[in-house]
Design brief:
With 220 residues, this protein is of the alpha/beta class. It has 6 helices and 9 strands. One of its GO terms (biological process) is glycosphingolipid biosynthetic process.
Length: 220
């Protein structure tokens, strides 16, 4: 449908029953969907690292499950949750999600998706591509601009063989920030090329929340 009018206030104030009332007949148990009348060329897993933001998760899941079937994708969504009160390690969760998803199916590619980023246009295709594809090019809180060339954080689409060749994300980044920049460096030194959809289409709305203080530069 192109540009989607994402009313954050309506979504955040809605009940989980309301968000999912039209999805129960479409989505299979375990958070998957595939076309009934054809075989999709794209089989993908969406990995969402998560802790303590259930409202955000419900809104994102509702939006993705409504959007992705229109792209005729064979997909499954995995929510990888860190328990306890230890410092958050987003990279470890994404690596764990990749390993667990790989045990269940031979996915062509994997999308690592922040829980607070909502796509605003369904022409921003979540399909697999020949090179790593950074999908969250233009984010509202960044004034819809790409802050720097090697940004791959937010929503990243990468083929299975590339993720394995890069040895995944570094597990060493505790706290908020820098694991995505580390991944961009891995791509650069391995000869992979970061691709992006047009900035007019690859737009996202951020769910506002109190963000953790970024780790200091020395620590990074």
């Amino acid at each position: 449908v192109g540009h989607m009018n994402v009313s954050l206030e309506d979504l955040m104030n809605s009940t989980i029953e309301k968000l999912f009332e039209n999805l129960t007949s479409k989505i299979e148990l375990g958070g998957s969907w595939r076309p009934k009348n054809c075989i999709s060329r794209h089989k993908l897993a969406i990995i969402i690292p998560f802790r303590d933001r259930e409202n955000h998760l419900n809104v994102l899941l509702s939006l993705l499950h409504n959007m992705l079937p229109r792209q005729l994708l064979d997909y499954r969504i995995y929510v990888v949750e860190q328990i306890g009160n230890d410092t958050f390690n987003k990279a470890q969760l994404m690596n764990a999600g990749f390993l667990e998803a790989s045990k269940q199916n031979d996915f062509h590619c994997y999308i690592f998706h922040d829980v607070d980023l909502l796509p605003k246009d369904d022409r921003n295709l979540y399909t697999c591509s020949n090179q790593p594809k950074h999908l969250s090019v233009a984010i509202d809180e960044m004034k819809y601009k790409l802050n720097y060339l090697y940004l791959v954080g937010g929503v990243l689409n990468i083929r299975k063989e590339h993720f394995l060749a890069l040895n995944g994300y570094s597990n060493l980044y505790w706290g908020w920030g820098a694991e995505d920049d580390d991944m961009a460096c891995r791509m650069f030194f391995s000869g992979l090329r970061i691709t992006r959809p047009p900035i007019t289409i690859a737009r996202y709305k951020t769910i506002k929340h109190i963000k953790r203080k970024p780790s200091g530069l020395y620590k990074r």
